[in-house]
Amino acid sequence: MLTDELKKTIQEAYRQFLDVKNLKARYGQRLMIAHIARTLGGIKRNQEHQRGGGDHLCVIEAGTGTGKTLAYALAAVPIAKACDKTLVISTATVALQEQIIYRDLPDVLTNSGLHFSISLSKGRRRYICLSKLDQLLSGADAKVLPLYIDEHMAAPDAESLSLYTDFAKQMATGKWAGDRDDWKTVIADDKWARVTTDHAQCTGRRCSHVKQCSFFKARESLTQADVIVANHDLVLADLALGGGAILPPPEECIYVFDEAHHLPDKVINHFSANFRLAATERWMEQIERALSAMIALPVMDNNIRSELESLLSQLIAVRRGLIPLRPVLEDLLDGAQERQGIKSVRFADGIVPAILTEHAKSLLAGFSEVIKQSEKIIDSLQDGMDNNELSGNREANEQWLTTVSMARFRAESAAALWRSYASDATKEKPPNARWMALVEAGQGMFDIELNASPILAANALKSALWSRCYGAVLTSATLTALGSFDRFSMRAGLDTDASFEVVPSPFRHAEAAELYIPAMDCDAGNAEAHTAAIIEMLPTLLDADAGSLVLFSSRKQLRAVREGVSAEWQGRILAQDDLPKHEILSRHRECLDEGRGSVIFGLASFAEGVDLPGKYCSHVVIAKIPFAVPEDPVEEALAEWISRNKGNPFMDITVPDAAVRLIQASGRLLRNEADTGRITILDRRMVSRHYGRKMLASMPPYRQIIE
Q1: Residue 154's pLDDT is what?
Q2: d(CA 697, CA 369)
Q3: pTM given for the model
Q4: Strand runs (DSSP E) across 443-567, as ranges?
């Protein structure tokens, strides 16, 4: 409960922080602290420690400049400690995660008078695997089966071998803890992939290197921390493993999801499944060869050899069962329409053809048996290693365990897809999206890919997170759409009794910025005429000596406008795809620091998360309303389901989503309270269509100039 003592702790921490930093209290920040404290401090449980509904969930939209991190830290840390719960702060981006762990929380710890310990949580792939490093340096890795088809097992070149030797030396002397992000230089992805691992490959506590393992050392520190800083992907990966595998169990956690508007899409990605026919046949053949080699070893335990022979027979049977599937899939793809250059078929209402359902049931049974037999062998290998009963050296036993674990992992992935295709879609509410496509597989080859995905994250979040966690705070600058939380609530599965609040931004939008919609003779729906109009208007709209950001909804239009403007203006433009994003931002800042004008041409990735304060961005131009690409199968399936339920997909999904993107794009202008400038929208639908007027009304209160 939110006791008077707890209230006093929070209030004094805020007062001390402001005094030490010589800051003034922000109204929105104060409201946010109070709202979080009331919600988390008011969680009620019955005698069985159960609670109902969503009154433990706190949803807050807080604009840029509110000081969200300080607000949720000051409110949630004391309450989490009082409840003996771990506070897990989760972000969508690595940049914000690092800002919180290295800057924001140490600032709170130093200046608020609160006492708490902090730990950073990252997945296994951010840490070195000493077993793999040892195998590489000894040449034994050539015997290890790759988990993924594109993991090449050729001997490392001299440059890579030098790097791996340096890894070993730095760890041996204690100068490096095995964290990729702490290495002195940037490590290329292909080089790092050879010396890291994931859940499927890791042998865990049975690894001979476990006492020195970087990942397990980092994980041990989590059990002692009051506050864990993670990211959405890691939280969802933990939930997919049942919760409590990487982070503390959800029941023992209070979560803060910063950048919470990303959470539903992250969930959909995590709970989707896919299956590539030719790639699956290849990895099955690889595992069959590896198992055959294991069976032939004279030192192999006879009981385990018998189990391996059964697994090998089952794998061969399942692979042969894929042969009659190919013509069925090819017939379904025959005559399919191409979307964005990809031939694909989406199954209406998620209902797959009967003949494919029958194959799905058979393959589900086959892959389930592979999983069952793999788990039996894994148990036998683990028991033998624990009791020192297996002959041969421990390193060989670990490699056997890794090979069988990978067979199980790949079979589980395949089974997830076929389980979805074998299910009765008519009983799903809402139905999953299911589709297949002909995709490039490299070297001029193509593969057939089958996909299944939830169309909303609601059910997954309700069952895996909201029903289990002690409490949660969800915050972002863009959670409402058209003035309502309805869109976010639908996608995130929030109960109506969750607590919702919009706190005011400290920015004086009307004084700092103007929203300008100029007169235009064309409709933005006419792509050719609209592009020609932008080419003509842009030089008159932009200040040649200032910093500007021009955002496009399509790559085609971006390129056409860049090629259409004069050579003089082309020299000022830094366009997406010409250079890496970080290089574009760096060169843009350099130009302005040297007194020269610079214009960034960007797509959606520049409309969010880009921070160009002050002179670096005094004008944001939005070419057109950022409607989503209509060919996305998941969005199509969601629209189909809403239509079936007598809804209006355009007004219920398309317009609210575009409204959120519009606010995010316009938010690139004001990054701190001293910023000023202009936002120009080159789309007359903002005033000529009723949905455009609704979007305009939901924008921050900029001073509006409409011609």
Answers
A1: 62
A2: 57
A3: 0.86
A4: 445-453, 471-476, 499-503, 513-517, 547-551
